[in-house]
Protein backbone atom coordinates (compact mmCIF):
# COMPACT_ATOMS: atom_id res chain seq x y z
CA UNK A 1 0.00 0.00 0.00
CA UNK A 2 1.41 3.33 -1.05
CA UNK A 3 0.80 6.15 1.37
CA UNK A 4 2.40 9.56 1.86
CA UNK A 5 3.68 9.84 5.41
CA UNK A 6 2.41 12.93 7.26
CA UNK A 7 4.51 15.84 8.44
CA UNK A 8 4.00 18.26 11.31
CA UNK A 9 3.24 21.12 8.95
CA UNK A 10 -0.19 19.56 8.44
CA UNK A 11 -1.06 20.45 12.03
CA UNK A 12 -0.05 24.04 12.84
CA UNK A 13 -0.57 25.67 16.21
CA UNK A 14 -4.15 26.63 16.91
CA UNK A 15 -5.59 24.13 14.43
CA UNK A 16 -7.13 21.02 15.91
CA UNK A 17 -6.47 17.76 14.08
CA UNK A 18 -8.88 15.83 16.30
CA UNK A 19 -6.15 13.46 17.47
CA UNK A 20 -5.16 12.71 21.06
CA UNK A 21 -1.52 13.25 20.21
CA UNK A 22 -2.17 16.66 18.70
CA UNK A 23 -4.24 17.69 21.71
CA UNK A 24 -1.49 16.70 24.15
CA UNK A 25 1.24 18.39 22.13
CA UNK A 26 -0.59 21.63 21.26
CA UNK A 27 2.03 23.65 23.09
CA UNK A 28 5.06 21.81 21.76
CA UNK A 29 7.52 23.46 19.37
CA UNK A 30 7.38 22.61 15.69
CA UNK A 31 10.59 21.90 13.75
CA UNK A 32 12.30 24.93 12.29
CA UNK A 33 11.19 25.05 8.62
CA UNK A 34 14.17 27.18 7.57
CA UNK A 35 16.98 25.53 5.59
CA UNK A 36 20.14 24.76 7.59
CA UNK A 37 22.71 27.52 7.83
CA UNK A 38 26.12 27.00 6.25
CA UNK A 39 27.83 26.55 9.61
CA UNK A 40 25.23 23.95 10.62
CA UNK A 41 25.96 21.90 7.51
CA UNK A 42 29.69 22.16 8.19
CA UNK A 43 29.12 21.06 11.77
CA UNK A 44 27.21 17.98 10.63
CA UNK A 45 30.01 17.14 8.18
CA UNK A 46 32.61 17.45 10.93
CA UNK A 47 30.49 15.30 13.23
CA UNK A 48 30.25 12.58 10.58
CA UNK A 49 34.02 12.62 10.08
CA UNK A 50 34.65 12.37 13.82
CA UNK A 51 32.15 9.52 14.19
CA UNK A 52 33.93 7.50 11.49
CA UNK A 53 37.29 8.05 13.19
CA UNK A 54 36.11 7.33 16.74
CA UNK A 55 35.86 3.49 16.48
CA UNK A 56 39.58 3.30 15.67
CA UNK A 57 40.44 5.17 18.89
CA UNK A 58 38.22 3.29 21.33
CA UNK A 59 39.78 0.95 23.90
CA UNK A 60 37.83 -1.36 26.20
CA UNK A 61 37.56 -0.84 29.94
CA UNK A 62 35.79 -3.96 31.36
CA UNK A 63 33.27 -3.33 34.12
CA UNK A 64 32.52 -5.70 36.99
CA UNK A 65 28.75 -5.75 37.60
CA UNK A 66 28.72 -8.69 39.98
CA UNK A 67 26.91 -11.99 39.57
CA UNK A 68 23.87 -10.76 37.69
CA UNK A 69 22.39 -12.48 34.67
CA UNK A 70 22.54 -11.14 31.12
CA UNK A 71 22.25 -7.37 30.52
CA UNK A 72 19.38 -6.79 28.09
CA UNK A 73 18.98 -2.98 28.15
CA UNK A 74 20.97 0.17 28.88
CA UNK A 75 20.95 3.96 28.54
CA UNK A 76 23.21 6.78 29.68
CA UNK A 77 21.91 9.28 32.25
CA UNK A 78 25.11 11.37 32.49
CA UNK A 79 28.47 11.33 30.75
CA UNK A 80 29.70 8.91 33.43
CA UNK A 81 26.65 6.89 34.52
CA UNK A 82 24.71 4.19 32.68
CA UNK A 83 21.47 2.53 33.77
CA UNK A 84 21.27 -1.19 32.98
CA UNK A 85 18.52 -3.81 33.21
CA UNK A 86 19.18 -7.53 33.44
CA UNK A 87 17.51 -10.86 32.75
CA UNK A 88 17.32 -11.47 36.51
CA UNK A 89 15.17 -8.32 36.76
CA UNK A 90 17.76 -6.06 38.38
CA UNK A 91 17.91 -2.34 37.61
CA UNK A 92 20.99 -0.37 38.63
CA UNK A 93 23.36 2.47 37.74
CA UNK A 94 26.96 1.77 36.75
CA UNK A 95 29.58 4.49 37.06
CA UNK A 96 31.88 3.95 34.08
CA UNK A 97 34.75 5.88 35.71
CA UNK A 98 35.16 3.92 38.95
CA UNK A 99 32.99 0.85 38.29
CA UNK A 100 30.70 1.40 41.28
CA UNK A 101 27.04 0.34 41.08
CA UNK A 102 23.88 1.64 42.78
CA UNK A 103 20.66 -0.40 42.82
CA UNK A 104 17.40 1.26 41.75
CA UNK A 105 14.28 0.10 43.65
CA UNK A 106 11.86 -1.82 41.45
CA UNK A 107 8.28 -0.59 41.40
CA UNK A 108 5.66 -3.13 42.48
CA UNK A 109 1.94 -2.39 42.99
CA UNK A 110 0.60 -3.29 46.43
CA UNK A 111 -1.10 -6.68 46.48
CA UNK A 112 0.63 -8.10 43.41
CA UNK A 113 3.29 -10.75 43.79
CA UNK A 114 6.58 -10.87 41.96
CA UNK A 115 6.34 -12.55 38.58
CA UNK A 116 8.09 -15.90 38.49
CA UNK A 117 9.04 -15.24 34.87
CA UNK A 118 12.74 -14.91 34.16
CA UNK A 119 12.21 -12.62 31.16
CA UNK A 120 13.91 -9.68 32.91
CA UNK A 121 14.05 -6.01 31.93
CA UNK A 122 14.20 -5.71 28.14
CA UNK A 123 13.88 -1.95 27.78
CA UNK A 124 15.23 1.22 29.40
CA UNK A 125 14.92 4.75 28.05
CA UNK A 126 15.83 8.23 29.30
CA UNK A 127 13.66 11.12 28.13
CA UNK A 128 15.10 13.68 25.72
CA UNK A 129 15.58 16.38 28.38
CA UNK A 130 16.88 13.77 30.88
CA UNK A 131 14.03 14.48 33.27
CA UNK A 132 12.60 10.94 33.41
CA UNK A 133 13.80 7.36 33.30
CA UNK A 134 11.40 4.67 32.09
CA UNK A 135 12.00 0.92 32.40
CA UNK A 136 10.24 -2.37 32.90
CA UNK A 137 8.82 -2.85 36.40
CA UNK A 138 9.15 -5.68 38.91
CA UNK A 139 6.27 -7.22 36.99
CA UNK A 140 7.52 -7.53 33.39
CA UNK A 141 4.17 -6.27 32.04
CA UNK A 142 4.43 -2.98 33.96
CA UNK A 143 6.03 0.35 33.11
CA UNK A 144 8.15 1.99 35.84
CA UNK A 145 8.87 5.74 35.76
CA UNK A 146 11.54 7.51 37.83
CA UNK A 147 12.50 11.16 38.19
CA UNK A 148 16.05 12.17 37.33
CA UNK A 149 18.65 12.81 38.57
CA UNK A 150 17.71 11.41 42.01
CA UNK A 151 16.04 8.23 40.65
CA UNK A 152 12.88 9.22 42.50
CA UNK A 153 10.17 6.54 41.97
CA UNK A 154 7.20 8.32 40.42
CA UNK A 155 4.71 5.93 38.83
CA UNK A 156 3.75 2.42 37.78
CA UNK A 157 2.04 1.99 34.42
CA UNK A 158 -0.41 -0.89 34.09
CA UNK A 159 -1.79 -1.41 30.59
CA UNK A 160 -0.12 -4.43 28.99
CA UNK A 161 -0.89 -8.11 29.52
CA UNK A 162 2.50 -9.48 28.43
CA UNK A 163 6.17 -8.54 28.68
CA UNK A 164 7.32 -5.06 27.71
CA UNK A 165 9.93 -5.33 24.98
CA UNK A 166 10.63 -1.74 23.94
CA UNK A 167 9.72 1.93 24.41
CA UNK A 168 10.29 5.27 22.72
CA UNK A 169 10.00 8.79 24.12
CA UNK A 170 7.96 10.91 21.69
CA UNK A 171 8.51 14.07 23.71
CA UNK A 172 9.98 14.62 27.17
CA UNK A 173 6.60 13.73 28.71
CA UNK A 174 5.02 11.34 26.18
CA UNK A 175 6.14 7.73 25.88
CA UNK A 176 5.08 4.79 23.71
CA UNK A 177 5.61 1.19 24.84
CA UNK A 178 5.39 -2.05 22.86
CA UNK A 179 4.83 -5.51 24.30
CA UNK A 180 4.37 -9.19 23.55
CA UNK A 181 0.60 -8.73 23.79
CA UNK A 182 0.77 -7.28 20.23
CA UNK A 183 -0.22 -3.83 21.50
CA UNK A 184 1.38 -0.43 21.83
CA UNK A 185 0.39 2.17 24.39
CA UNK A 186 0.84 5.94 24.72
CA UNK A 187 1.56 7.28 28.23
CA UNK A 188 1.78 10.81 29.59
CA UNK A 189 4.08 11.54 32.56
CA UNK A 190 3.77 15.33 32.46
CA UNK A 191 1.60 15.47 35.57
CA UNK A 192 4.04 13.49 37.73
CA UNK A 193 5.79 15.41 40.45
CA UNK A 194 8.64 14.46 42.74
CA UNK A 195 7.72 13.52 46.27
CA UNK A 196 9.51 12.42 49.47
CA UNK A 197 10.96 8.91 49.14
CA UNK A 198 8.16 6.30 49.45
CA UNK A 199 8.44 3.38 51.83
CA UNK A 200 10.25 0.27 50.67
CA UNK A 201 9.44 -3.38 51.15
CA UNK A 202 12.18 -5.89 50.40
CA UNK A 203 13.88 -3.67 47.85
CA UNK A 204 10.59 -2.84 46.12
CA UNK A 205 8.75 0.46 46.29
CA UNK A 206 5.00 0.19 46.82
CA UNK A 207 2.22 2.71 46.25
CA UNK A 208 -0.09 1.57 49.04
CA UNK A 209 -1.00 2.82 52.48
CA UNK A 210 -0.33 6.32 53.74
CA UNK A 211 2.21 7.08 51.00
CA UNK A 212 0.12 5.85 48.08
CA UNK A 213 0.28 9.27 46.46
CA UNK A 214 4.07 9.12 46.20
CA UNK A 215 4.14 6.43 43.51
CA UNK A 216 1.21 7.03 41.21
CA UNK A 217 -0.65 4.61 39.02
CA UNK A 218 -0.55 5.39 35.30
CA UNK A 219 -2.97 4.19 32.67
CA UNK A 220 -2.36 4.50 28.93
CA UNK A 221 -4.00 7.35 27.07
CA UNK A 222 -4.26 5.34 23.87
CA UNK A 223 -3.71 1.67 23.04
CA UNK A 224 -3.35 0.61 19.43
CA UNK A 225 -2.59 -2.54 17.47
CA UNK A 226 -2.52 -3.72 13.89
CA UNK A 227 -4.72 -6.68 14.92
CA UNK A 228 -7.88 -4.63 15.41
CA UNK A 229 -10.34 -5.67 12.73
CA UNK A 230 -7.64 -7.65 10.95
CA UNK A 231 -7.76 -11.19 9.63
CA UNK A 232 -4.47 -11.72 11.47
CA UNK A 233 -6.17 -11.35 14.84
CA UNK A 234 -6.14 -15.10 15.51
CA UNK A 235 -3.55 -16.32 18.06
CA UNK A 236 -1.63 -18.21 15.36
CA UNK A 237 -0.93 -14.89 13.63
CA UNK A 238 -0.21 -12.89 16.78
CA UNK A 239 2.47 -10.30 15.99
CA UNK A 240 4.39 -9.53 19.15
CA UNK A 241 5.86 -6.03 19.30
CA UNK A 242 9.58 -6.74 19.51
CA UNK A 243 11.15 -3.31 18.91
CA UNK A 244 10.20 0.32 18.16
CA UNK A 245 11.81 3.20 16.25
CA UNK A 246 10.58 6.80 16.13
CA UNK A 247 10.97 9.38 13.34
CA UNK A 248 10.53 12.70 15.13
CA UNK A 249 10.71 14.66 11.86
CA UNK A 250 7.55 13.03 10.51
CA UNK A 251 5.88 11.94 13.76
CA UNK A 252 5.81 8.32 12.61
CA UNK A 253 6.49 5.17 14.61
CA UNK A 254 7.89 1.93 13.19
CA UNK A 255 7.09 -1.26 15.08
CA UNK A 256 8.96 -4.50 14.43
CA UNK A 257 6.48 -7.29 15.09
CA UNK A 258 7.21 -11.01 14.98
CA UNK A 259 5.38 -14.32 14.90
CA UNK A 260 6.25 -17.95 14.28
CA UNK A 261 6.47 -17.36 10.53
CA UNK A 262 8.60 -14.23 10.35
CA UNK A 263 8.49 -10.49 10.95
CA UNK A 264 6.71 -7.38 9.68
CA UNK A 265 7.54 -3.70 10.18
CA UNK A 266 4.43 -1.53 10.61
CA UNK A 267 4.52 2.25 10.17
CA UNK A 268 2.09 4.37 12.24
CA UNK A 269 0.88 7.95 11.88
CA UNK A 270 1.04 9.26 15.46
CA UNK A 271 -1.52 11.99 14.79
CA UNK A 272 -4.22 9.40 14.17
CA UNK A 273 -2.61 6.16 15.49
CA UNK A 274 -3.50 4.56 12.16
CA UNK A 275 -1.18 2.18 10.35
CA UNK A 276 -0.03 3.59 7.02
CA UNK A 277 2.32 0.93 5.65
CA UNK A 278 3.53 -2.55 6.50
CA UNK A 279 6.66 -4.24 5.15
CA UNK A 280 7.38 -7.96 5.42
CA UNK A 281 10.97 -8.79 6.34
CA UNK A 282 12.83 -11.04 3.86
CA UNK A 283 14.81 -12.84 6.58
CA UNK A 284 12.52 -14.67 8.95
CA UNK A 285 14.74 -15.80 11.81
CA UNK A 286 15.34 -13.79 14.98
CA UNK A 287 14.33 -10.28 13.97
CA UNK A 288 14.96 -8.58 17.32
CA UNK A 289 15.81 -4.88 16.80
CA UNK A 290 14.94 -1.88 14.65
CA UNK A 291 16.78 1.45 14.60
CA UNK A 292 16.10 4.78 12.85
CA UNK A 293 18.82 6.87 11.19
CA UNK A 294 18.07 10.42 12.30
CA UNK A 295 20.86 11.85 10.12
CA UNK A 296 19.23 10.65 6.89
CA UNK A 297 15.69 11.30 8.12
CA UNK A 298 14.25 8.30 6.27
CA UNK A 299 16.36 5.13 6.72
CA UNK A 300 15.72 2.24 9.13
CA UNK A 301 17.73 -0.87 9.91
CA UNK A 302 16.32 -4.19 11.19
CA UNK A 303 18.62 -6.78 12.76
CA UNK A 304 17.93 -10.49 12.28
CA UNK A 305 19.88 -13.70 12.69
CA UNK A 306 21.80 -13.29 9.44
CA UNK A 307 21.31 -9.78 8.03
CA UNK A 308 20.57 -6.12 8.59
CA UNK A 309 17.59 -5.23 6.41
CA UNK A 310 17.23 -1.60 5.32
CA UNK A 311 13.97 0.28 4.82
CA UNK A 312 13.37 3.76 3.39
CA UNK A 313 10.06 5.42 4.30
CA UNK A 314 10.15 7.21 0.93
CA UNK A 315 9.85 3.77 -0.72
CA UNK A 316 6.75 2.34 1.01
CA UNK A 317 5.85 -1.32 1.28
CA UNK A 318 9.28 -2.69 0.34
CA UNK A 319 12.83 -3.06 1.64
CA UNK A 320 15.71 -1.25 -0.08
CA UNK A 321 18.60 -3.61 0.58
CA UNK A 322 20.30 -5.80 3.13
CA UNK A 323 23.70 -6.30 4.72
CA UNK A 324 25.00 -9.76 5.57
CA UNK A 325 26.18 -10.19 9.13
CA UNK A 326 29.85 -10.97 9.68
CA UNK A 327 28.73 -13.36 12.44
CA UNK A 328 25.77 -14.98 10.64
CA UNK A 329 25.38 -17.95 12.99
CA UNK A 330 25.17 -15.83 16.14
CA UNK A 331 22.65 -13.20 15.10
CA UNK A 332 22.49 -9.40 15.25
CA UNK A 333 21.42 -8.38 18.76
CA UNK A 334 21.66 -4.57 18.80
CA UNK A 335 21.93 -1.64 16.36
CA UNK A 336 22.77 2.06 16.65
CA UNK A 337 23.00 4.81 14.01
CA UNK A 338 25.37 7.73 14.55
CA UNK A 339 26.23 10.23 11.78
CA UNK A 340 25.73 7.77 8.89
CA UNK A 341 27.64 5.09 10.78
CA UNK A 342 25.73 1.97 11.79
CA UNK A 343 27.16 0.01 14.74
CA UNK A 344 26.15 -3.64 14.88
CA UNK A 345 26.32 -5.71 18.08
CA UNK A 346 26.38 -9.46 17.44
CA UNK A 347 25.88 -12.67 19.38
CA UNK A 348 29.59 -13.42 18.98
CA UNK A 349 30.67 -10.51 21.20
CA UNK A 350 31.64 -8.14 18.39
CA UNK A 351 30.61 -4.60 17.47
CA UNK A 352 31.13 -3.83 13.77
CA UNK A 353 30.75 -0.46 12.04
CA UNK A 354 29.10 -0.01 8.65
CA UNK A 355 29.46 3.27 6.74
CA UNK A 356 26.09 4.10 5.18
CA UNK A 357 27.72 6.47 2.68
CA UNK A 358 30.39 4.18 1.25
CA UNK A 359 28.30 1.01 1.80
CA UNK A 360 31.26 -0.78 3.37
CA UNK A 361 32.28 -1.97 6.81
CA UNK A 362 35.06 0.07 8.39
CA UNK A 363 38.26 -1.89 7.83
CA UNK A 364 40.61 -2.78 10.62
CA UNK A 365 43.67 -4.17 8.83
CA UNK A 366 44.63 -7.11 6.65
CA UNK A 367 42.50 -10.22 6.64
CA UNK A 368 42.18 -13.46 4.71
CA UNK A 369 43.11 -13.98 1.07
CA UNK A 370 40.30 -13.94 -1.46
CA UNK A 371 39.79 -16.19 -4.48
CA UNK A 372 42.14 -13.97 -6.51
CA UNK A 373 44.91 -14.42 -3.99
CA UNK A 374 44.79 -10.78 -2.94
CA UNK A 375 44.62 -9.91 0.73
CA UNK A 376 41.17 -8.66 1.78
CA UNK A 377 40.94 -6.03 4.52
CA UNK A 378 39.32 -7.32 7.68
CA UNK A 379 36.43 -5.38 9.16
CA UNK A 380 37.14 -3.34 12.26
CA UNK A 381 35.50 -4.86 15.33
CA UNK A 382 35.36 -4.11 19.03
CA UNK A 383 35.52 -7.50 20.78
CA UNK A 384 34.13 -8.06 24.26
CA UNK A 385 36.52 -9.55 26.79
CA UNK A 386 36.05 -10.71 30.34
CA UNK A 387 32.65 -10.96 31.97
CA UNK A 388 31.36 -13.47 34.51
CA UNK A 389 29.93 -16.96 33.96
CA UNK A 390 28.25 -19.23 36.49
CA UNK A 391 29.68 -22.72 36.08
CA UNK A 392 26.62 -24.60 37.31
CA UNK A 393 25.17 -28.00 36.44
CA UNK A 394 24.00 -26.79 33.01
CA UNK A 395 27.50 -25.56 32.21
CA UNK A 396 29.17 -28.75 33.46
CA UNK A 397 26.73 -30.98 31.55
CA UNK A 398 26.84 -29.27 28.17
CA UNK A 399 29.80 -26.88 27.96
CA UNK A 400 32.58 -28.27 30.15
CA UNK A 401 35.75 -28.88 28.14
CA UNK A 402 34.52 -26.71 25.29
CA UNK A 403 35.70 -23.20 24.30
CA UNK A 404 34.41 -20.45 26.58
CA UNK A 405 30.85 -19.48 25.54
CA UNK A 406 30.57 -16.21 23.63
CA UNK A 407 29.09 -13.09 25.22
CA UNK A 408 26.42 -11.56 23.01
CA UNK A 409 26.19 -7.76 22.75
CA UNK A 410 22.50 -7.45 23.63
CA UNK A 411 22.77 -3.69 24.10
CA UNK A 412 25.16 -0.89 23.22
CA UNK A 413 24.81 2.90 23.34
CA UNK A 414 26.84 6.08 22.93
CA UNK A 415 27.35 8.53 25.78
CA UNK A 416 25.56 11.91 25.54
CA UNK A 417 28.74 13.55 24.18
CA UNK A 418 29.20 10.64 21.74
CA UNK A 419 32.78 10.06 22.96
CA UNK A 420 32.22 6.71 24.73
CA UNK A 421 30.46 3.48 23.84
CA UNK A 422 28.86 1.21 26.45
CA UNK A 423 28.50 -2.45 25.50
CA UNK A 424 26.84 -5.17 27.56
CA UNK A 425 25.19 -8.56 27.37
CA UNK A 426 26.03 -12.07 28.43
CA UNK A 427 26.44 -15.67 27.27
CA UNK A 428 24.51 -16.44 24.11
CA UNK A 429 23.63 -20.13 24.74
CA UNK A 430 20.22 -20.68 26.32
CA UNK A 431 20.41 -21.82 29.94
CA UNK A 432 23.75 -20.25 30.80
CA UNK A 433 23.84 -17.61 33.53
CA UNK A 434 26.39 -14.79 33.28
CA UNK A 435 27.07 -11.22 32.15
CA UNK A 436 29.41 -8.89 30.34
CA UNK A 437 29.75 -5.09 30.54
CA UNK A 438 32.38 -2.69 29.26
CA UNK A 439 32.90 0.92 28.29
CA UNK A 440 35.00 1.90 25.29
CA UNK A 441 36.86 5.18 25.71
UniProtKB/TrEMBL annotation:
Residues 1-44 are annotated as: Disordered. It comes from the Eukaryota. GO terms for cellular component: Cul4-RING E3 ubiquitin ligase complex; cytoplasm; nucleus. Pathway: Protein modification; protein ubiquitination. Its main location: cytoplasm. Residues 23-41 have a biased composition (Basic and acidic residues). Keywords: Cytoplasm, Nucleus, Repeat, Ubl conjugation pathway, WD repeat. InterPro entries: Beta-prop_DCAF12, DCAF12, WD40/YVTN_repeat-like_dom_sf, WD40_repeat_dom_sf, WD40_rpt. Residues 54-440 form the DDB1- and CUL4-associated factor 12 beta-propeller domain. WD repeats lie at residues 157-189. It holds the Pfam family Beta-prop_DCAF12. It is found in: Cytoplasm; Nucleus. Belongs to the WD repeat DCAF12 family. This is DDB1- and CUL4-associated factor 12.
Amino acid sequence: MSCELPSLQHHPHGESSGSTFDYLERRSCLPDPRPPRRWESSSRGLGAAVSRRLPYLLRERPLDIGKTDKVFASDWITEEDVVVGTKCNKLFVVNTENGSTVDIPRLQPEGSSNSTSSCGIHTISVSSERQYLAAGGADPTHLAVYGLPEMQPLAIGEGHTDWLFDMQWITDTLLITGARDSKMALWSVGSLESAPPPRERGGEVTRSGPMAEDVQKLEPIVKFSNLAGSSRSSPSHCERVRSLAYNRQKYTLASLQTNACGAIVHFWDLFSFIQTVEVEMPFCAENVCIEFDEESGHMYGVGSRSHVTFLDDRVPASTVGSLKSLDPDCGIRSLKFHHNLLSIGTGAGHVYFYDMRTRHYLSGGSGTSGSSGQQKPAALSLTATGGWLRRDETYRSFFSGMPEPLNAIYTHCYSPARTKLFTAGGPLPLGLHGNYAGVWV
